[in-house]
Amino acid sequence: MTEAEDRSGWVKRPTAAIEGTGCTLEDYQALYARSIEDSDTFWAGQADRLDWIKDPTVIANWSYDPVSIKWFEDGVLNICHNAVDRHVAAGHGASTALIFEPDDPAGEVRRITYAELQAEVIRMANTLRKMGVTKGDRVTIYMPMVPEGAFAMLACARIGAIHSVIFGGFSPEAIAGRVEDCRSDWIVTADEGLRGGKRIPLKANVDAALDKVSVKAVLVLRHTGGEVAMTAGRDHWYHELSADVAADCPCEPMQAEDPLFILYTSGSTGKPKGVLHTTGGYAVWTETTFRHVFDYREGEVFWCTADIGWVTGHSYIVYGPLLNRATALMFEGVPNYPDHDRFWQVCDKHQVNIFYTAPTAIRALMREGEGHVTKHDLSSLRLLGSVGEPINPEAWRWYHDTVGKGELPIVDTWWQTETGGVMITTLPGAHDMKPGSAGRPFFGICPQLVDAEGEVLDGAAEGNLCITRSWPGQARTVYGDHDRFVQTYFSTYSGKYFTGDGCRRDEDGYYWITGRVDDVINVSGHRMGTAEVESALVLHPNVSEAAVVGFPHDIKGQGIYCYVTLNADVAESEDLTAELRAHVRKEIGPIATPDHLHFTPGLPKTRSGKIMRRILRKIAENDHGALGDTSTLADPGVVDALVEGRRNR
Ligand code: WTA
């Protein structure tokens, strides 16, 4: 136990690191109370920090039954103006907006000022216009982690187009499905991506996707210089098409509730959903959460290691930092290339002050030993953050003691694609920390725990996590399918937003997220629907049936465990295992690669034919003693065979 701990489980917020912070516990309590009791005044005050073409007079206007969510609805603004032009106009054009650190440590670092960012975004915006993109059109962005990815997002926002960013690790099939779902006529991509020294064939993946769906045009950034095929009339090199565009491009005035972006995310059933965020509420929410959660101070370097293909990259590489005129670091590579010290080497090289990463990365690096950390000068670091999955106390302590030298606060931020920004966290300066607990609700957030029947649980309790009031950054709908939005989030417990997470609240009012309670698994901080992996498996001609569950994995948090029933005439073999793994990678992408394939002649089903996933989860967890009641099974013998099969693995 370190000196900072004065009672079991608590880690005192370190006073040395928070000197000068704007937020004390009393501030938090007062601001939180105001955000609930006088919500409209509180949020109007936050909104005031942005430039509005027309100030909003209606602040919150929402209902969870029926579901209709609006914030700042009569306000007019442009988020790109607020993230870029506003700062240049105020005389900060020479401040650094983005620092780009390439995959190759010897590669060229790019430092992009706000004035340069403005010029680059205008160039991209006018190029998109030249391709025919107009307000309300959906533009798919399938890019490596390079500044042009951010330029493309901001360019869309500038001209009122809706961006749909697809993570560069997704397969052609996944791209095609998303392009089709939101009827996107344009794709922005690059020749290739680079990660850990390997080339990712982005353009070739787009070409394969376009065998299945068609678009009007593809804009291609030359990044690695690798060979790619260009289809005449459809594909355009960015450097060619942008060569003669105008150097100005006004920001489109947007209603606060005009769509800003779609981001596909996995749920418990069906295909990924296109979660829709709108302009005004998302701008206010990312500006406010970034400022408070990371206690950002002028001139500091903020590094979020996520990819712009995920919501964390949207909110805390692009919008949150830039709305606050911060300097954001963008890293193309991976934590273990060329060696396990890359994160710390980059922190040292760019004098990073605030570092925000995922538990899976921390666990992987922890395993490599502290020498990789201690050989670098990390004295610039002031604050650490964690996001994406529950952080186990052991990893928390290593992060705190080894990376943070036992001195830095850690913000463990719980939130979701659907929430737009951080919802539960401690605030540096205000709260003591408990390793493994996300902490307290952010301003305006009312968490509630309920049991399976929907009974509200008070005080210290464990249950399903709901949110009872709307907040500005909340997703407004599922693109093109509002019923699905209502069904997914507001029908389990009527009148409440259901997060899909289980959670415990302790006697101090701290929240401990226990993980998903639905059929979503969290693999290395990436959300994966078990139904998606099952659909991919049964597409294979040899597979008759598949059931997929998560199981605890030391590094990834959860791994993917697949039970597979083969067609009668097919024998299991190592070749077939390899083939099925490759098949899932091809259908979804490498992040969905199964960890275990367990061939079985049958799956445990009730007499009515429902697969009993509870049993499959227990077997995958190797928790054979706790299988519970199996008497309702059509054929209880199946379970013995599965347990035997698991033991032999
Ligand atoms: C999980 C990522 C525990 C949770 C921002 C949630 C977390 C899902 C945390 C959303 C955390 C995220 N502690 N669990 N600090 N942060 N999660 O949409 O299960 O990719 O529902 O958004 O990640 O994942 P998503």
Automatic annotation (TrEMBL):
Molecular-function GO terms, alphabetical: acetate-CoA ligase activity; AMP binding; ATP binding; metal ion binding
Family as reported in the entry's similarity comment: Belongs to the ATP-dependent AMP-binding enzyme family.
Source species taxonomy: Bacteria, Pseudomonadati, Pseudomonadota, Alphaproteobacteria, Sphingomonadales
Domain Acetyl-coenzyme A synthetase N-terminal span(s) in chain numbering: 28-83
PTM notes: Acetylated. Deacetylation by the SIR2-homolog deacetylase activates the enzyme.
Pfam family, one: ACAS_N
Keyword annotations: Acetylation, ATP-binding, Ligase, Magnesium, Metal-binding, Nucleotide-binding
CDD domains found in the cross-reference section: ACS
Residues the record lists as binding CoA: R195, G196, G197, K198, T312, N336, S524, R585
Binding site for Mg(2+): V538, H540, V543
Residue intervals of the AMP-binding enzyme C-terminal domain: 532-610
Gene Ontology annotations of biological process type: acetyl-CoA biosynthetic process from acetate
Enzyme class: ligase
Known function: Catalyzes the conversion of acetate into acetyl-CoA (AcCoA), an essential intermediate at the junction of anabolic and catabolic pathways. AcsA undergoes a two-step reaction. In the first half reaction, AcsA combines acetate with ATP to form acetyl-adenylate (AcAMP) intermediate. In the second half reaction, it can then transfer the acetyl group from AcAMP to the sulfhydryl group of CoA, forming the product AcCoA.
Protein name: Acetyl-coenzyme A synthetase
GO cellular component: cytosol
Cofactor: Mg(2+)
Reactions that this protein is recorded to catalyse: acetate + ATP + CoA = acetyl-CoA + AMP + diphosphate
EC number: 6.2.1.1
Positions of post-translational N6-acetyllysine modification: K610
Organism encoding this protein: Qipengyuania citrea
Residue span(s) of domain AMP-dependent synthetase/ligase: 87-469
